Amino acid sequence: xxxxxxxxxxxxxxxxxxxxxxxxxxxxxxxxxxxxxxxxxxxxxxxxxxxxxxxxxxxxxxxxxxxxxxxxxxxxxxxxxxxxxxxxxxxxxxxxxxxxxxxxxxxxxxxxxxxxxxxxxxxxxxxxxxxxxxxxxxxxxxxxxxxxxxxxxxxxxxxxxxxxxxxxxxxxxxxxxxxxxxxxxxxxxxxxxxxxxxxxxxxxxxxxxxxxxxxxxxxxxxxxxxxxxxxxxxxxxxxxxxxxxxxxxxxxxxxxxxxxxxxxxxxx
Amino acid sequence: xxxxxxxxxxxxxxxxxxxxxxxxxxxxxxxxxxxxxxxxxxxxxxxxxxxxxxxxxxxxxxxxxxxxxxxxxxxxxxxxxxxxxxxxxxxxxxxxxxxxxxxxxxxxxxxxxxxxxxxxxxxxxxxxxxxxxxxxxxxxxxxxxxxxxxxxxxxxxxxxxxxxxxxxxxxxxxxxxxxxxxxxxxxxxxxxxxxxxxxxxxxxxxxxxxxxxxxxxxxxxxxxxxxxxxxxxxxxxxxxxxxxxxxxxxxxxxxxxxxxxxxxxxxx
Lengths: 268, 268
What we know:
Two copies of one chain form a homodimer.
Chain A: H1 9-27, E1 37-41, H2 49-55, E2 60-65, H3 68-80, E3 86-90, E4 103-109, H4 118-128, E5 129-139, E6 146-148, H5 152-167, H6 178-184, E7 188-199, H7 204-221, H8 223-228, H9 234-246, E8 253-264
Parallel strand pairs in A: 1-2, 1-4, 2-3, 4-5
Antiparallel strand pairs in A: 5-8, 6-8, 7-8
Helix pairs in contact in A: 1-7, 5-9
């Protein structure tokens, strides 16, 4: 809890630094031309939207999400960021109120992992792309996490995240599947690029910002549910979380891989 | 077995292409200046030596290995490759016949994984480096392998490699430990860089050359020992190997991460 409250200015700067590192890793190579029509599908509360729109200031970005509350939050965030090239709309990806071929580019980040039928979602989005338009997909893969010191309990705790995501109809191991999913959804020129976040004591902003506050915090966040649903006993869970924190000590290391894919819709 | 015999010219070209891809990934950023004194510690049969020496044609490369047979094979390989800047010597890393500070750079590739005390080996090598000299270390990490379709049997088969390496006194998960090992051995400026080999059907030379012929072949190669030592029952083993081959089909993917570290010896 000491990390959640009372951030100093120094702390804020460090967090911004960490966010910038991940932003560069995942987003730096996505820049859309002036005037191009971009759809962000599943914008959530706009965490990726503000990066996307800032990196392509002259593109015309439309963001949709199925949650009205999220759309409201995303719109406020974009306004606070001073972005003038973004509009927001509550819509279902599978039934979006756009004519066919409305967009030159589609962007989907941390969305497919939650869907029971990601191929159907990708195919629906393909219908919204003009022929030859591009799609960009970014997803994580919890099975890509490994660390030193290694820990069976930590691996089992991470496995609970995967199990819970599966019970909710999603797939926390979807990163490794982006290639076949895009091919099955009818895209061409599918190109997948793994992006490793590797943290050791020489990269303290990543140890703190990613290993501790992002990944380990995410594992800790589902502890009650995981133990409550008897996916793991409470002592093993606690040992797993302790082992993840142990990897943030000066001799620890932590690796996680995101997958970024690009593809095109078939020509007319 | 169809891959082992009767390589066509096309097949040879594809293998060369695959080797070049891995060579670039692991070695392209290691170039030593003209006249610099380089030690390759644990050259084995010279597989990395020929790349190292070709990339730094004006450096003066000394290669040692504890096996006389390997040194002979490495020398022949270097001669066949027409390399004039390499010499070979049978020697123990822990008792090498060189004065202190004999080298400007040390290079160690796929060696530490076999050693019971990698920190002692790194410290011994530090003694051979001039103050401020550099060390470069490359190692794999079998725990970094994941794939689609996922398979419990395949994960257990890979686990047997890790267990067998541990029984032999080594560590097949050493890639993630390079940072603390180098720090503990007294090096400065330790910088670790993960290098992902990711293969899907858009990269057929990697699917064939890495997933099938390198990684899966390595797992298959220890099957008799793993089953013989009762690390895994024969049917599970066979299922694991089949599952690894399954990842080479058009909808399969495979990821593996090598770790490359550089560091310097302390100033005088």
